[in-house]
Amino acid sequence: GGGSRSSPGSVAASPSGGGGRRREPALEGVLSKYTNLLQGWQNRYFVLDFEAGILQYFVNEQSKHQKPRGALSLSGAIVSLSDEAPHMLVVYSANGEMYKLRAADAKEKQFWVTQLRACAKYHMETSSKTTPSSRSRSLTLLPHGTPNPASPCSQRHLGAGAPGVVTITHHKSPAAARRAKSQYPGQLHEVREMMNQVEGQQKNLVHAIESLPGSGPLTALDQDLLLLKATSAATLSCLGECLHLLQQSVQQVGQPSHKPGASENILGWHGPKSHSTEQLKNGTLGSLPSASANITWAILPNSAEDEQSLPPEPEPNSGPELVLSEDEKSDTEDKEETELGVMEDQRSIILHLISQLKLGMDLTKVVLPTFILEKRSLLEMYADFMAHPDLLLAITAGATPEERVICFVEYYLTAFHEGRKGALAKKPYNPIIGETFHCSWEVPKDRVKPKRTSPHSPAGHEQLTAEDPSKSYKLRFVAEQVSHHPPISCFYCECKEKRLCVNTHVWTKSKFMGMSVGVSMIGEGVLRLLEHGEEYVFTLPSAYARSILTIPWVELGGKVSISCAKTGYSATVIFHTKPFYGGKVHRVTAEVKHNPTNTIVCKAHGEWNGTLEFTYNSGETRVIDTTTLPVYPKKIRPLEKQGPMESRNLWQEVTRYLRLGDIDAATEQKRRLEEKQRVEERKRENLHTPWQPKYFIQEGDGWVYFNPLWKAH
User: Would the pTM of this model clear 0.70, i.e. be above it?
Assistant: First the structure.
């Protein structure tokens, strides 16, 4: 949070009786504002001008006499509390803008909320006193020829016979109209006015659909009506994004604007708000009354009646467990997910969900249907990215810094193919706090060579195992869920013989994007080659689930970086998302550069799940087909030897019922696990006891394995 230095006595007073209002200094102070996905929360200096009804913010107090970074009109604004982050409040303006803010403590949060609400109420009342005349417009979705409910003569008629019809009347004061015109110059003002009308009509449409009876020839869960709700909301959101792009273009050619900078406000208009969004965020949506659907939503109760059947929570301060490698056996789990599209009875549930989501909405607290789950934990998915350990271990065998960084890029680009089980977009289990996953690989020593000097891989997707442990390298892996809010996963792997290790922490953040879902993997990993004293810092791409109503599929997107400060080498990798029209899927390009000499030493292009072509500065080229690379199965202990918080043991009942196709039973098992996590979290909050991970220690903004190879050696 930030910290406001204002006190109740130094702020603008609420409107007093008798029509007058005391004019006192505005409320000022530091609040933390959510800027964007990359920069997160940033301290900003806020000024609430009660007289003008505007909330402005600046980079800091010293710049408050300059032009504000952003301004929000509070007339008609809604100020609400949020449990998304500590001491958080959200200000929704009447024009669709939203500020996410955090105060230093609960008292300061309530103080700001009270003042903002008082200001919004005062200016709303002032605005509503203006004569409607030409500044008022009425919107209705009534069929042509039906009397307008806004007219007095039709009130009795509608009151008796049309409970599902809603008319939304918008009033705009002269000052608000002038402000809107300055924000949306020229033609853009007319576009905004049109979008206001369409938004009102879309709200009427949604209300009319949701007012339909639960049974009969036409219900609120009718397939076509659900699709209409979903696509109309997605269309409005996309149009809002288009308007924002137009605004940016106008600003770039020198038009004045009072909107926040693009880096601080991703969308200029946030689309229609659903009345049930809060329900959805809080996970209180119950089972759908659909006769054909045998899938139910996870209901989140307030009590934990089923705790006795769940695994016991580990002691917060219990030390790391010793995992015996002789107990580990080659993994025999199913490698592929069932390649099926969305079933008809499941489609209505997804439609019902997406018709209530808003573009850009954080999905962290949205309870998703169980049938979209993949039969493994996210922690295990990270281990599956290591399915080509021979390429990883070959990095340290490179003779020069240039060869080693190129080897790392080759390994990095081939890692994602095996991590995805099939092309179908399914979601791994969200790890429970304290959940762990252990495994290892044995790699024959004669297989570990730099890629450019190694023999060609044999055709076919080989499964390789080492018969003689003395002739193989051992690569160990451990992952742990160290935080629930935000959801942070850590994993560490090492090969003592090759003096190589990787330490990574990842915060996954999901958001709704119309007919797809985006998952950002925020954080970084560090590959350490102790033999050479080199550290390679790398980031991870975003993932997108596309076509979520038909046959969902996954693609990666975004720019990632790999850099080594010691050698001066770096790489930029771009995962290209498919264009709306034409274009290829799963494209990736990469460029390796020696920064001191500004020399490009390697370029790569192709598909991350197909063929990759590398071109080196010597003119040599090499093609790697990811589908024919040998795969090394991970070794894992059987369930009876795993601890209660190890992934496969923890989720075994959910996995078992998913395999049987019993979605209801899988949903119930998942609900029990998640409810137990919530109960334990409330206990820790009441006792003010922070969670203590087993294997990872927080250092600054990152997390580090408790006994890493670079400290042990």
Answer: no
